[in-house]
Amino acid sequence: MLALAIIVAGGVLRLPFEQARTRDLQQRGILEPPLSASLRDELGQSFFIAVLGGFRSVVASLVELKTIRPWQERQWGLVDEYYAICNKLQPREWHYWDLRAWHAGFNAADNYQYESVRSPAVKTMKSRQAFVKAIGLIEEGLRYNPKVYQLYERLRLLHTSELNPEPDFLAASRACEMGATCPGAPPYLRRFAAYHLADVPGRELEAWRRLMDLYRSEDPMDRSPSVGLRLAVLEPTVTKLDPSAMLPVEIAPHAVRMRAIWKANREKAQMQRVQIGSPVQGGH
C-alpha cells in the first residue's frame, strides 16, 4: 500500500509537468494534437486504426481524394466535411486549410449565386456565409502555420475578392505585411501591402510614402506600372494633405488618363459587388 501510495503521489506531482511538456511540443509542431473522440465515427474503423498506427498523413491524403466527386457535383457541405477531417489529422499541413477556404470562399460562394432553385435573398445569404467561413478557416489555419506565406496570400485574396460584398483592404494590407516576413515569401507581397493600404480611407498619406519608397527603389519590379498607377490615383488626395507631395516626372503627364482608367475599372468592380450583395439582384 505504501508503494502504491508513492507511485500515485509521484504521478500526481508529475502530471502538470507532463501536460506542460505536451503542450509545448504541440505548439512547436513536434507532437500532433490528440485525436478527438468524434474522429472515429467520421473516419470509420479502418481509417481510425491506420491513424492510431501512425499513418495520419496517408489517411489525410486518402480523405482528400474523396472530395473530388462532391466537388464535381457541387456538394459543398460534403467537401467541407472531408477537408475538416484532413485539418484534424494534419493541422500543420497548410494546403488543406488553403483548399478548404478556396472551396468555401470562391467555388461555393460563386456557385450559390447561380442556383435557380433558391430565392435571391437565400442565395445572397448563403454566399456571404460561405465567404465569412473561408476567412475564418484561413485565420484558424494560421494559428497552426504562422510562417506560411501562402495562407496570408489566400487571406488577402479573400478580403479583396469581387465576391466579397464587404471587402476589408486594411486587413488585406496587414495580411501582406505578415506574409512578406515569412520564409520564401515573394517580393510582390510588400507591394500589395501598399496597394491595399491606398484603398483605406484616411491612410492615403501613409500609402503614398510607401509607394514612393517602392518607386525610388533600385529594384525594377518595385517600379512596376501598378506602383505608378496608384501614385497617380492618390495624388489629388495626398496633395491636399501634404502640398509638397509631387508625382514623379515620368508619371505626371499621364496622370489624368491613368486616373480615368482606374475609375472605370473600380466602378465596374463595385457594380459586381452590389449585385452579389443585393438580395434583390441575386446573381452576378
Structure description:
There is one protein chain. The longest helix has 26 residues. The N and C termini lie far apart (76 Å). The protein has 284 residues and is mainly α. 70% of the residues lie in helices and 0% in strands. The chain is built from 14 helices and no strands. The C terminus is likely disordered.
Topology:
Blueprint: H1 2-27, H2 39-43, H3 45-52, H4 56-65, H5 68-72, H6 76-89, H7 94-112, H8 120-144, H9 149-160, H10 169-180, H11 188-197, H12 204-215, H13 225-241, H14 255-277
The tally of strands reads 0
**How far do the termini sit from each other?**
76 Å
Coarse structural class: mainly alpha
- Tell me what portion of residues adopts beta-strand conformation: under 5%
**Principal-axis shape:** extended
Q: What would the average pLDDT be, to the nearest integer? A: 82
Number of helices: 14
SSE series:
HHHHHHHHHHHHHH
As a percent range, the share of helical residues equals 55-70%
Keywords:
284 residues; mainly alpha; 14 helices; 70% helix; disordered C terminus
